[in-house]
Amino acid sequence: MTGDAPRDLDSLRSWHSDWRGLRVAVLGLSMTGFSVADTLAELGAEVLVLTEKADEEYARLVPVIGARLWTGALDAVPQELVDFAPEVVIASPGFPPHHPVIAWTQRSGTPLWGDIELAWRVRDKVLREDGTPADWVLITGTNGKTTTTQLTAAMLVAGGLRAAPVGNIGVPVLDAVRDPAGFDVLVVELSSHQLWYLSLADADVAPSPHASVCLNLADDHLEWHGSFAGYRDAKAVVYRSTRVACVYNKSDLATREMVEDADVVEGCRAIGFDLGVPGPSDVGVVDGILVDRAFLDDRHRSALELATVADLAARGLAAPHIVANILAASALARSLDVEPAAIRDALARFRLDPHRIEVVAVAGGVTWVDDSKATNPHAAASSLAAFPGAVWVVGGLLKGVDISDLVAARGGGVKAAIVIGVERGDITDAFARHAPAIPLFEVDDAQTEDVMARAVELAAGIARDGDVVLLAPAAASFDQFASYADRGTRFARAVHDRYGPQ
User: What's the mean per-residue pLDDT of the chain?
Assistant: First the structure.
């Protein structure tokens, strides 16, 4: 173990600070982990990457960038880590608070960061024309994060700003911070995992975003956070130190309470959104028109038109939860002075990601919808609200979440339910208690390649002209599929195999 005095980490607030020789242990070697290691190596830090397994390409690149790589079991603290005596540990967001290495780090008093704290500290690598770093807009929520992040970035670009969707959406923030082209705004999607790590950061070194939003809150990732309260507290971090606009969901009391409790910069405004008529500091819907009553001088007596529900419907964007996402994104964009015309232009070109309420076929009068991205009950509830009376394909890995409330609220309104996945018992029990009259069909444990073929076969036998068959699993996919995308792709393929290409 080295005897060097610990570095004053409080001084490391810029790309141009002296990071040389700082001993940093990086946990995990996903895209995020590699972006952290690569950034630190570029800064001159001494980097040790620890991971249970390494993608072949990343494993090859770690020594090339000048870092060290250790692979092996992390169910106990590796001696290599102890001997390294890190001055900072930076963890990829997959490491939960109860992980042995995280627990050791906190017991030892070693500072623990996530990639977002590091990115904020070094955000001044590339500056705008006015000599300032890019503004940040932070987005979280149980559902709708990716869609809202993409929408916001598209609106900002349409408004003439150099903007990029980054973070949990798939592009590490550190990659954007180091992009030599530079940006005016980074639109950062944050998972509850990333926000938990951000909660450990002192307020003076944590992000102070231009605007922020928590779209909604419902049970999710309870096995990671340990409780709903822990999950809620992590999500609430998104509003901390916001400078201009805290956007919240008027239909979700938890998000309003987060804003009310948040320690924000003086002068920051609370901006509400929902599908109802907006108040003077809100965005909402009036007679089928999406309007802004927050970002205009005469907001007490007038409103600005942003879009119409009819136009959104023509583009497949009129499901209620998608309209809510559009309103949230519009509020964020308007906080950065994007004109309503630019918002309309962005919406005219916007397309939802695959596996998000995607119509994969219309055959025999039956519409087949892939919403495999509905990986928790809250997301599935939105899908079921958009397609009442659907034949519902549900199930997978529940991640410690009780599905009973969803079945009680929405299960009685479906035509039938087809239950897939390894945790089918919890779902069938919920139907037995809350919706016993609904026909229920199970796809027994089967090979991955057979699951969707059997589910589609069962659905085809139930659905009639005018019906919708909806894949909205309310669960994670990793019990039987490689990802939610794999699950959705296999569903679409099974439909096409039965009815031919659409």
Answer: 95
